[in-house]
Amino acid sequence: MSMQKVPHEQIVNEKLNDTQMRQNLSNAMHTLQKNRLNVIKDRFVDWQGLRFKAKNAKNNALMSLKERLLEFEANATKNGINVHWANSSDEACEIIYELMIQKNIKKILKGKSMASEEIELNHYLEKKGIQAIETDLGELILQLNGETPVHIVVPAIHKNRYEIGEIFKEKLNVPLEHEIEKLNSIARKHLRDEFEGLKMGLSGVNFAMSKEGAIWLIENEGNGRMCTTAPDIHVAICGIEKVMQSFEDAATMVSLLTPSATGQFIPTYNNIITGPRKNGDLDGPKEVHIVLFNHHRSDMLANEDYYEALRCIRCGACMNFCPVYDKIGGHTYQTTYPGPIGEVISPNIFGIDNTGDILSFCSLCGRCSEVCPVKIPLADLIRKLRRNKIGQGQNPPLGSKHLKHSKMENFVFKNYEKMATNGALWRFFLSKTHMFNSLLHSLANSLPVLKKWSKFKDLPQIKINLYKELENMEGIRYE
Q1: pTM for the whole thing?
Q2: Could you tell me if residue 222 is left (phi over 0), alpha (psi between -120 and 50 degrees) or otherwise beta?
Q3: Fewer CB atoms near the end CB (10 Å): N or C, the chain?
């Protein structure tokens, strides 16, 4: 990743002290949580059964991914779609750039696409002297303010309407407003001017369907439909894991995605694209290009410990319920995908040596695993990555060979494992920890790790039946 990273301790402290950001996030997260719970209760008869169905459909697609991809290419080509293959993020950017050069295009308007964030398309095109303009309202706000998305579904959720009004006033030279309708009107007028005469639009892909050779995009604003319908050329960026077998499988995913993401029963716009404009059509692009890119997804698929993360449908529910994310925000992760899902996929696609430090942003409470609509065991995967980070485990992710491991750390964790996997031994030593409180605090100033830990915590006093535990440990009966 090309971004300049800030030391994590520094950025965590900054975000914890940003009271406005934390209030904005807390209000938004609680609203999203409530909306999700209400729509599941009111509109679904068998939510858990639907989750199992989606899990199986996604697993079936992943386990036959080669066949799915080839089938999609063949059927999409029959439909008049141009299919391009990219192994790396640079290759994906290069394909889009070359298309723009061939067509003599100097500006591209983008619908919301986390895939384009992942490959850093905007930065790539900017270096080439080409303008990439975001049309999603949240993405537009962040682009104007020089920020990256803080959330994979609602990218500017950390900003309130007063802050957005200030950004529009400064960057768009408009009167200061804070009413939501007026802010939307300002954004709409700004973007409609940009859409005029547009030659190329770009989108992501929520799901691709191999049998139909088509793609499915969902949105709430309508800007995505403008990007895919108004210009002469539509380019879609699609991670290879987004390819499902059929329309029915994709429909199952969509029925889970919007309730999990925003608490809506259905999205405002469903865009199913089967090809370019045909004879007699009144609108639509003359050309449709789809860039299928890998970017280490095949490595994840081959890893039995982490392949399940490829089931992700990018709903953001794990972030909405994460007790860590809503305290520190998405920017603290300093990677494209924040939150629990980001802690799993970022080390796998960007390298654990580059992003492994975010693995500490997890309390292992398990909320993320509970709410994931496709039943990804996120807490378990994060625990496995922590194991890999210290040099244990059999299936390390990308970048593991560049990690430096401490012999003392390995020694401590191996002995901790021995103690923690013996119930009687664990309870016995746990009952004695409070005896070391005075020693802990006396050494705190000279030992950095202890200094940080003891600032907020004391070792607990836990009362147990000592004789019973000794009997369990030693097999001796005490009278």
Answers
A1: 0.88
A2: left
A3: C
